[in-house]
Structure formats: structure tokens, C-alpha cells
What we know:
Helices cover 58% and strands 23% of the residues. The chain has 2 domains: 1-85; 92-194, Ribosomal protein S6/Translation elongation factor EF1B (Alpha-Beta Plaits). A hairpin with a 2-residue loop joins strand 2 and strand 3. It has helices at residues 2-83, 92-105, 137-149, 189-194, and strands at 109-115, 119-121, 124-136, 154-163, 174-185.
Amino acid sequence: MVAIKRSGKLHLLLLDALGASLSAxxxxxxxxxxxxxxxxxxxxxxxxxxxxxxxxxxxxxxxTARDRQQATLQDRQTELAAGGQxxxxxxxxxxxxxxxxxxxxxxxxxxxxxxxxxxxxPGLLEQRYAYxxxxxxxxxxxxxxxxxxxxxWADISYLKIHDGQPQGGDPTEERIASLTISLFSAATNExxxxxxx
Length: 197
């Protein structure tokens, strides 16, 4: 009976030892999983925070770029709206200074420029000027092109080229170009009342 009791105690001790070992292994595994998983979770949280920070910076940069683009669009729309409109009046002095500069640049001599009768149309005033220059045919052609490309609302509405000398034919010979230059502006009531048609 004593042997049975010892054997029973031994079994109980073995069971206790086995239970304690299993508990220790379970606790160890739980701790190991908790620590490793916790480090993994901390690492994932750090990565997510970095992603959120990066996305926030990208969003701020995109908003700044959008604001710049909207400002540029507004500027372009304003320029476009103003660019196609006739000026309310023309700086005649500025235009003829530009015209004289173009003539000199293209090796032409200005013979005369006289005002002609203005013409009024609904919302439009055409101020016309007779203009005469002397130069070679290539220089005259470049001058006409420069007038057309000028930033003024101006046009050559009449052109006649005469030979400067009776023999003619040689492109290096000087010729006289008589032209009518029309300057356009939006007619005001005052201009329309004083202008002649």
C-alpha cells in the first residue's frame, strides 16, 4: 500500500511537473508571441505613420500645385478676354514712332505721312493715314510684313508701288511705296460724333 501511495504520488508529481512544464512552455510561447507580434505591430504602426505623413505632404504639394494652376488659368483667361478686344483708343504718337523705327530698321526713308478721313462703323473707328516710303523691293516687303506683325490693331488697306526711276525691273533699285494704313479702335460716342464717314 505504501508502494501504491508512493507510486500515486510519483504520478501526481510527474503530472504536476508535466503540467508546470506545459504551463511554462505555454506562458513562454505566449510571451514570445506577444513580444514578437508586438514588435511587428509597432513596426507596422511606424510604417503606417510614415505612409500617412508622406501622403499628407503629397496632398499639400498637390493642393499648392492646383492653386498655382488655377491662378495661371485665371491669368490666361483674363489675357484671352482682353487680347481679342479692340483698344478704346490708339496711341497715335506711339504707333508712328514704332512705324518710323520699323522703316529705319528696314533701310527705308519716310517721304510723308498725312491723316486721311476717319471712318466710323458700329463699335469701330478706323483712323486712316497716307504713308509713303522709299526703298528696295525686298526691304519694302519686309517692312510690310513687320507692319502686319506689329502689336497694334493696324492694317495696310491700300498699297501702290511705283518705280523710283524710269528704267525699273532691277530689285536693287529703289521704289516708292504709297500705302494707306488703317488704325482700328473701339468707337466711343464722342469719337463717333466727331468722326467723318
